[in-house]
Amino acid sequence: MSAMEVDTSSASSSSLIFDSLPYYDNDYEQDPSLKDRAEKLIAKELGKAQPQGDLHPRVPPPTTLFSGNPVLETEMKRIEAQQPFPPLDTLRYQLPGPTSSPGTQEEWTTALNNAKAQLEHQRLRQTNIALLQNYGPNAWRIHNYLLEATSKNLDKSLEELKELTVEVNRDRKNFQTRIGNQLTSLETRWTELISSVLQIEMANVALEGEMERLSKKEADLAAM
């Protein structure tokens, strides 16, 4: 019995059924021509497939990352274009004075506002450093603990999936081996029955020939 029954005359039909028992069938080893037929069928089906440039209708369209954030969207485009990161603007961290001497009131106001902004920035940095020193180590330990717990859960799930996969493959192998043995027994029985039918047909042909010979002999005797 063939591992893959294919009706080549209706290859374009959508009702084709490809069935095999990979743990039992060894048709490729017994008949290498089956491999050539299978490869031709695969090449034929691939030829009917859509071009590589067209996606399958079920594949969702590509998504645009950070479409709601212009800053991140611009940064993503820069990374995709492999452009270097722009240098940091250090002018914002400086305290430039008025460019003219003695300076206008507007220039002094701008310099004063810049100094206030720098002072507020340094104050916030000190506050963040103090908070990090007080609560940072514990927060980091809790974060690491959560990461370790998540990693253990994922490893456990992975092991369970591996065991389930092995169990499924084992069940498939046992099922296919059992069904394969039944197929072998049925095929052997079918061969024996076909052989018996052929022997009976040959015996019938011989018997008909004998009956025809006897009938002819009887007719010859009657004629005498």
Automatic annotation (TrEMBL):
Keywords per UniProt: Coiled coil, mRNA processing, mRNA splicing, Nucleus, Spliceosome
Naturally occurring in which organism (per UniProt): Antrodiella citrinella
Species classification: Eukaryota, Fungi, Dikarya, Basidiomycota, Agaricomycotina
GO terms under biological process: mRNA processing; RNA splicing
Protein's UniProt name: Pre-mRNA-splicing factor SPF27
Keyword Oxidoreductase: no
InterPro entries tied to this protein: SPF27
Annotated family: Belongs to the SPF27 family.
Pfam families: BCAS2
Recorded coiled-coil stretches: 114-217
Main location: nucleus
GO CC list: catalytic step 2 spliceosome; precatalytic spliceosome; Prp19 complex
Subcellular location: Nucleus
